[in-house]
Design brief:
Rossmann fold, 7 helices
């Protein structure tokens, strides 16, 4: 099972994105359901609202309804999210990145993300960034 990050979803939705073809190929090698942390869905909705029209989000939601599970990080994730996003941690992760990493850790360890700071968690051996 693979967890999807907002950057991967943006790349998948935007045919002109530099990572579009790569993310599409990688996603096709994964088996559904794909996991989308709820905060990622909110970030994606915001990005679509400022860059595209409502039809893009509607098409995405129609597809996601069939092949994805949206996960609201429950209370057990909060400790790990806090640990990863702590200002005192040596990891350059914000709360959203930490949420995605925590969800990926809990659900098979695979994260589809074209770039970003989750590589530091991958270096711990907790997740594999598919990029």
């Amino acid at each position: 099972m693979v967890t999807l990050d907002a950057s991967a979803l943006v790349a998948l939705l935007a045919a002109r994105d530099a990572y579009h073809d790569r993310m599409r190929r990688l996603l096709l090698t994964e088996r559904p359901p794909y996991l989308i942390p709820e905060p990622v869905l909110a970030e994606l909705a915001y990005l679509i609202e400022i860059r595209a029209d409502a039809h893009v989000m509607d098409h995405f939601l129609a597809d996601a309804e069939v092949v994805a599970r949206v996960l609201a990080p429950p209370a057990p994730y909060l400790g790990r999210i806090r640990q990863l996003a702590s200002p005192h941690a040596d990891l350059p992760l914000g709360v959203l990145d930490a949420t995605v990493a925590a969800v990926a850790e809990e659900h098979g360890g695979r994260l589809l993300r074209p770039y970003g700071h989750c590589q530091v968690v991958a270096a711990e051996g907790r997740i594999e960034v598919v990029a």
